[in-house]
Automatic annotation (TrEMBL), chain A:
Family membership noted in the UniProt record: Belongs to the binding-protein-dependent transport system permease family.
Keywords on record: Cell membrane, Membrane, Sugar transport, Transmembrane, Transmembrane helix, Transport
Subcellular compartments: Cell membrane
Name of the protein described by the UniProt record: Multiple sugar transport system permease protein
Boundaries of every ABC transmembrane type-1 domain copy: 82-279
PANTHER family: ABC TRANSPORTER PERMEASE PROTEIN MG189-RELATED, ABC TRANSPORTER PERMEASE PROTEIN MG189-RELATED-RELATED
Membrane topology listed for this record: Multi-pass membrane protein
Length: 293, 313
């Protein structure tokens, strides 16, 4: 596309007030749950259940008190859950990304035996529902004594066929064969060519795949729910789900647990929101890489 | 080694067959070296579990007589099991309502954001995309609060007009309660994909259309939407795969909506219950595998029908 014509359409001031108002309503809709959690995590149990305005602050604003309770409840189990989630997201994300980058590069740049067939398998795997694998994986892991360990969550997170697909497209389009051949002619081995020539060219897509797989691990619920029984290994998603089950189970006796859940939901979201805002360029970059051309 | 590579840059014609053979072997080896690690994970954590699920699903465990080979009995049981059938019917109905809704909302937002450029639209784009960063479980927890009678705002808001608030956790409305949670969670993500596709269109096309007298609506309907059909189809495939496996949101809201969401609400919840609550792994595997089969066939059929209109896969 020509940059000049794009700049021209950009420069024209466009107001469209009705559309902007409509957009305003949509923004409110998408932000309401966040607002509710921010407001209500400031309240103590009487403030929560006292029948005051649920979308505004109560007289008592006690973030620090609720935070202290959240991190001290049950010997600080919540802090452990956050750390577990971090471990699963980092280990699963980095591992899956390394595998996906290597495989995507391999598929794009080498003509090896059974390449077409293997790549067709990877594409087919995109359509396999991840949850269909949970029950048999659990059975296999329990045979090896791996259930209820961190490996039960990390190992299945390493499988990211979509990452391979993304990296394949990106390596094919962004890494010219000529540069690789030139590096080889200069005496670089295959591994060095990959690490020092191809990898820097693939970096934008690598960051995207890393983000997508780390977020997928952080958000995972079904897999750890099935694999883990020791609550000290839970990620924060499973932990909060368990708390919610307990709090809903005994209505009267659990008012204090509710305020912990609300605060817990807020705290669990903060790292993601920060990552989201600081890295938004990479998120969006990757989505347009996603083979949509 | 260097010499060999130098001599053997691919696509050069003057090579002796002997060296080419060596080079080919080297390329095979290097290719497999790069793909191998992923290949091992792929075999161990995708192919093996699938094969194992298929194997498990062909057996039945009885109190008397232990485990016995029953061939397709579990599948015959699943496809006549009211729990599995009603769950499947629910996710199909849910897909038919929620996917078009999400895509229409996402498309409308993407067209607005593509057509109107201001500081506010840039801010909106970010805010609308934000729920994608939230785990589905936490999203369901947050909407559970908003739906709740004891501390949700619905009682207040409807109370102002003297009306009774709708209970999105009741049997009649839980369907729409879940549609809302899913739309909130995913519409922003789909919007970003569509927006990226719209931004990739050459603006010269709009200029040409304007010359021919096309208005904004006509440009949107006749140029923009047709050109992003591949992106729309991609979203459709993703959302179909995701929705048929529906699990997290109903599983979380289940606690709040006691009695409304049963443990066999969706096929995935039913498989989970069979395997982990009742330790009936054989039947659970059969349900998982049957569901996986439905998803695979559905998506494959969809890809086949649309093969001329998409550029991916």
């Amino acid at each position: 596309m020509s940059d000049r014509s794009r700049a021209m359409t950009r420069r024209r001031p466009q107001r469209h007030l009705p559309l902007q108002v409509l957009l305003g309503f949509l923004v409110v809709y998408f932000l309401v749950p966040f607002w509710w959690v921010i407001v209500n995590s400031s309240k103590d149990a009487p403030g929560l259940f006292g029948g005051g305005n649920t979308l505004w602050f109560a007289d008592q604003i006690d973030y620090l008190g609720n935070l202290g309770q959240l991190f001290s409840y049950d010997n600080g189990i919540y802090g452990r859950w956050i750390l577990n989630s971090t471990l699963y997201a980092v280990a699963g994300g980095v591992g899956a990304t390394i595998l996906a980058v290597m495989a995507g590069y391999g598929f794009a740049k080498y003509r090896f035996a059974a390449r077409r067939f293997s790549f067709a398998l990877v594409l087919g795997a995109l359509m396999v529902p991840a949850t269909a694998l949970v029950i048999p994986t659990f059975m296999m892991f329990s045979a090896f004594g791996l259930t209820n360990t961190v490996w039960a969550v990390i190992l299945p997170s390493l499988l990211n066929p979509f990452g391979v697909y993304l990296m394949h497209i990106y390596a094919r389009d962004a890494v010219p064969d000529e540069i690789l051949d030139a590096a080889r002619a200069d005496g670089a081995g295959e591994v060095r060519t990959f690490l020092q020539v191809a990898f820097p060219l693939m970096r934008p897509a690598v960051v995207t795949v890393l983000l997508l797989s780390a977020v997928a691990s952080w958000n995972n619920y079904f897999l750890p729910l099935a694999m883990l029984s020791d609550n000290r290994l839970f990620p924060v998603t499973v932990g909060l789900g368990v708390w919610q089950g307990i709090a809903s189970g005994n209505n009267a006796g659990s008012t204090s647990l509710w305020s912990l859940i609300i605060m817990g939901a807020l705290v669990s979201v903060i790292p993601l929101v920060i990552a989201f805002f600081t890295l938004q360029r990479h998120w969006r970059g990757g989505l347009s890489v996603g083979g949509l051309r | 080694m260097t010499l060999l590579i130098e001599n053997s840059a691919p696509r050069t014609q003057e090579k002796t067959p002997r060296i080419r053979g060596k080079v080919r072997l080297r390329e095979h080896l290097m290719g497999w070296l790069f793909v191998g690690p992923f290949g091992i994970v792929f075999l161990a954590l995708l192919i093996a579990p699938l094969a194992y699920a298929l194997y498990l699903s062909l057996f039945q465990k009885k109190l008397i007589g232990g485990t016995s080979f029953v061939f397709l009995d579990n599948y015959a049981k699943a496809f006549t099991d009211p729990s599995f059938l009603s769950g499947s019917w629910f996710v199909i109905r849910f897909s038919l309502v929620s996917i078009p809704l999400q895509i229409i909302v996402a498309l409308a937002m993407a067209l607005i954001l593509d057509g109107v450029t201001s500081l506010f639209t840039r801010f909106s784009r970010l805010m609308i995309f934000l729920p994608y960063a939230i785990p589905t479980v936490i999203g369901a927890v947050m909407w559970g609060f908003l739906y709740s009678k004891s501390f949700g705002p619905l009682t207040d808001i409807f109370g102002m007009f003297g009306a009774t608030p709708p209970d999105f956790l009741s049997g009649n409305l839980i369907f729409y309660g879940l549609v809302n949670v899913v739309t909130w969670q995913w519409a922003g993500y789909y919007m970003i994909i569509l927006y990226a596709a719209l931004q990739g269109i050459d603006p010269a096309l709009y200029e040409a259309a304007r010359m021919d007298g096309a208005g904004k609506w006509q440009i949107a309907l006749r140029i923009k939407i047709p050109l992003i059909v591949p992106a729309l189809l991609l979203i459709l495939v993703f959302s179909l795969i995701g929705t048929l496996q529906f699990f997290n949101e109903p599983q979380i809201l289940r606690f709040l909506a006691a009695g409304t969401i049963s443990s066999d609400f969706t096929p995935n919840m039913y498989a989970y219950q069979q395997a982990f609550a009742l330790a009936n792994f054989n039947y659970g595997s059969a349900i998982s595998f049957a569901l996986g089969g439905i998803v695979f066939v559905g998506v494959y059929a969809f890809l086949f029908i649309t093969r001329k209109r998409r550029s991916f896969l």
